[in-house]
Structures are given as structure tokens and as C-alpha cells.
Design brief:
3-stranded antiparallel β-sheet, 206 residues
């Protein structure tokens, strides 16, 4: 008689973290914010629904979710752009590639993918749109505000929304710079220059 293997429909937070390539703390944060579905056992242990983990994995660009991401070089400015317009993403990649400092540009076409990428390696600079399908940029920023690993990341919003529309969506934290569209690449380069300068001072031997 053929043996039938039944896969568990849930996993531990550690197993979910290993599958997603993020920390256990990040998994717990995503559970609290509803990005992952979970429940607690009678003993108080979290069990994460495997289908919600798989849903996040499928949002990873190039189906590379199961690959071990390369750890960023400390000498290269890590930039993540979250934007649902494919043409604009290509423009970001081209323009940032012309900056004088060494950069590594990562692209995400939705907020969930952006969160997953940030959970693996927080960037030095996050540039994000706000109007995106599914989870919008405002909701993504609220999740990121609870992530202690983001304390060294500079966040810049680039949006076509006006002040009243931003207020309707809950507003943007005062320390996050908001830039209009069309994208002001000169200002973004100036911000990146500031970040690179501060990082070089930090990395200098004492």
C-alpha cells in the first residue's frame, strides 16, 4: 500500500523565519500586524499558518525566496525602491546606477515584497511610493516603525498624493521626507551622498 505523506498546515515561528530568510522577531512582528496568520497553543507558543508563509514566498521577485541572500557589503550603499510602476522602477535603477558612490539597488513592485526584503537586510536608503495595490505604502511604513532593525535606514517617500490625501491615509511620520512626482533624482542623490558620507565616517578606523 502506497504511503501517503501529509504536510503540516502550520509551522513554528523559527521554521517560518528559516523559510522566509528573516529573524524570528520579524516573523513575530508580521504576525502581530496580520501579514502572517497564526494562533497560540495552550502552552502559549505561536503556530504560523503555512499557506500565509507560502503566500509571502511567492511574492519574492524571481522566485528566489528559498535562496540564501548575499550579505550586503559595508562599502556599498544599499538602496531599496518600492514602486508598483514597472517603468518607473527601471528609471530608478538607471538613474541610481549613475550616482558617484557605489550602490546596490534592489527593487520591489509591492509593499509585501518590500517588507520581506527589508526583513532580510534593512537597506541604507528606502525609497517608496504610497499608492500601491494590496498593502499601500502608508501601511508598510507603520509596520516598519515597529522594527528596531530599521533605526539606521533613511526613508524617503516619493508620491503624487497631496497633503489632504496623505492626511486621509493617516499621515506620514514627521522625520520621513516626502518628495513629489516626477521623481526629483537630484534630491535623492543629495540624500544618498549624505548617507554615504555618514557611513564613511563611521567606518573610518579610530
Amino acid at each position: 500500500m502506497k504511503e501517503i505523506t501529509v504536510e503540516k498546515s502550520f509551522c513554528t515561528t523559527r521554521q517560518a523565519a528559516d523559510l522566509l530568510g528573516v529573524s524570528v522577531g520579524t516573523v513575530q512582528l508580521w504576525v502581530e500586524n496580520g501579514l502572517l496568520k497564526a494562533w497560540k497553543t495552550a502552552g502559549g507558543h505561536r503556530r504560523v499558518m503555512r499557506d500565509s508563509v507560502d503566500a509571502l514566498l511567492h511574492k519574492t521577485p524571481d522566485n528566489s525566496a528559498n535562496a540564501t541572500p548575499a550579505r550586503p557589503s559595508p562599502d556599498v550603499l544599499q538602496v531599496l525602491v518600492v514602486e508598483d510602476d514597472a517603468n518607473l522602477l527601471r528609471l530608478y535603477q538607471t538613474m541610481i546606477g549613475r550616482w558617484p558612490m557605489a550602490t546596490q539597488v534592489s527593487l520591489a513592485d509591492n509593499a509585501i515584497t518590500g517588507l520581506l526584503m527589508i526583513g532580510r537586510h534593512p537597506p541604507d536608503l528606502l525609497i517608496t511610493d504610497l499608492s500601491m495595490p494590496g498593502m499601500d505604502g502608508c501601511a508598510m511604513l507603520r509596520v516598519l516603525r515597529q522594527n528596531a532593525d530599521m533605526r539606521f535606514t533613511r526613508i524617503v517617500v516619493v508620491s503624487g498624493l497631496d497633503a489632504s490625501e496623505l492626511t486621509q491615509r493617516g499621515g506620514i511620520p514627521a522625520d520621513i521626507e516626502i518628495l513629489p512626482k516626477p521623481v526629483p533624482f537630484a534630491r535623492l542623490q543629495a540624500i544618498a551622498t549624505d548617507i554615504a558620507g555618514a557611513r564613511s565616517m563611521t567606518l573610518m578606523p579610530s
